[in-house]
Amino acid sequence: MCEAGKSDHHSAERCVDFPVSVVLPAGGTGERTGLQTPKQFCTFLGRPLISYTIQAFESMPWIQSIVVAVAKENMDLMTDIIQRFKHRKVRAVPGGSTRHRSICNGVLALGEEERPAVGRPKVVIIHDAVRPFVEEDFLCKIAMAAKEQGAAGAIRPLVSTVIATTSEGYLDHSLERAKYRASEMPQGFTYDVISQAYQRCSESDFEFGTECLHLALQYCGTNAKLIEGPPTLWKVTYKRDLAAAESIIKETLSRSACVITGGLAEAVNLADALRKAVGALDMELDIVPDLMGDNARCLLKEWNFIQVSVSHSCLSEVEAILVALEAENRALLHPVVVIWVHFSRTDELPVSERAPTAITELASTAKHRNILIYGIQLKQSKVMLLSYISHLYILGCTHILICIGINVPSSATKRMDRNFKSSVI
Questions:
Q1: What pLDDT score was predicted for residue 255?
Q2: What does DSSP say about strands 385-394 and 397-405: parallel, antiparallel, or unpaired?
Q3: Contact yes or no for 124/54 (Cβ under 8 A)
Q4: Rg of the Cα trace of the chain?
Q5: Which ranges does the record mark as transmembrane (predicted)?
Q6: Largest interatomic CA distance in the chain
Q7: Are 38 and 70 in contact (CB under 8 A)?
Q8: What pLDDT, in 10s, does the model give residues 269-290?
């Protein structure tokens, strides 16, 4: 099992052993962005914003289903997004004229789930479609608190002081900032609490209300547990926020990698040294012998893979990675980088110069599927030194590619870097 992935997913699954579903209200018009396209459908890095939010929830095994409530005129667009990016846990339902009406429609849809394998959830998570950065450990806290308390919500400290004004536009009074918090998403409720709250609330609540936690308190007597959330909970509201979201996603893509060792001693030693080298850069490495069984979960969380081989016959291991990535439709969402590190037992020519037909054909085919293969050859007679890390921009995404120096002068390292960047084998 991949070490980081194992810790994150298994700890969450041990805690969340009950059905959890998600409602994403996505019926907004996005007036504050100043764009004709509603912000949830704005595209960057080849995908609409809402697809990133859906992906965040789909990557959590304990989330059983996701309902997206969209304006009727955008139903076809949302259906196309679900199909194009092969979102498997999602279905779209018509939203309402207000936020509460859209959420209510989503909750009702969960109670009328048509798929036999997906029953009514114990807990419903409500989240904004334009908040794509959801951390699993925090969502787990919300789900657990909702199950125990009936309702739970994220909060953040206020950044600015809140003031009240008179009708003439003068200062009336200000609030003591330390006593107040900003209500954020996600919020969680037991299905019974949130469904009853919407059954009992008034037309005025439907038309003008925005706070689900208040409905649970007013109509069900459920006092929500409030949990301070991470700073990543921010919402894409203005046009400039789209650029910020794109930047964060680029950084996220290069934050971690999976090293497949095949269980070989040389490969394991290399992976351990590599982990030490990149640790100072706040980059995480999952080290696994293969991608079989529980280790296959690495396919759901990584965008960068390093396959370490000791013979040409191990090219089949790279082919196995490609097959696994295809099965998970991983490259539909972002470009995937696969680095093949080959240990040479002799002084044979580097892979890039030899360029065997089988390798070049494999890389060429993979590139058309949005999977980029890079190759590095190491001579075992040399002392390996992990000395160079290069950021390579691929299709607009930043991926950290690991370039391994072999005790060569800095000038030679620079030449190797240039060759490495241009030698997609």
A1: 83
A2: antiparallel
A3: no
A4: 25
A5: 385-408
A6: 85
A7: no
A8: 888 888 887 776 778 889 999 9
